[in-house]
Amino acid sequence: MQVRYGQSGDLDWLCENDIHVGKDWIKRCLGNQEYVVALQDNKIIGFLRFSFFWGKIPYMDMVWVPEAGRKQGTGTALFNFWEAEMKKVGAKVLMTSSVIHELEPQTWHKKNGFQESGQLHFGNFDPTKEVFFIKNL
Ligand SMILES: CC(C)(COP(=O)(O)OP(=O)(O)OC[C@H]1O[C@@H](n2cnc3c(N)ncnc32)[C@H](O)[C@@H]1OP(=O)(O)O)[C@@H](O)C(=O)NCCC(=O)NCCS
Predict the structure, then answer these.
(1) Quick check: CB of 72 below 6 Å from ligand 1?
(2) Residue 111: HSE in the Cβ half-sphere, 13 Å Cα cutoff
């Protein structure tokens, strides 16, 4: 398996698979090196998209592996690459979050060393609570 930052040639695959954001945002994230992708035989098998809370704290917005390819270490490989890269740029803490009732990703985040740090809802945008996690580096 190869893990690297997303590149412009990954745009079509990401548009098909990163369904929570539009093409313009995907292009923006690719331009800013805010995607990490995992590949097998030169085909993408998962991605991690991130941003920076307060422009400072690396925030893992989304990590996704197609269902058929899960539990084979791809998600962990994406996360490990990202964590190592964020350490290189001097990050002291990582952030992520999950919808409150989605327990599986929360367990996965904890396995990767995250601890729960609070809950928020987003008013008119989405009253469902989101659980936030941090990992001290
Ligand atoms: C969360 C997600 C990215 C994890 O990806 P993944 O590739 O399945 O993750 P990994 O394979 O690294 O780890 C998952 C499990 O497989 C196990 N595993 C890892 N390699 C393995 C292998 N070779 N054989 C068997 N099991 C393995 C891990 O120990 C882990 O165990 P757990 O289920 O007890 O936690 C994936 O489930 C997903 O895309 N979910 C939907 C989207 C989502 O919820 N994203 C997170 C919120 S943004």
Answers:
(1) yes
(2) 12
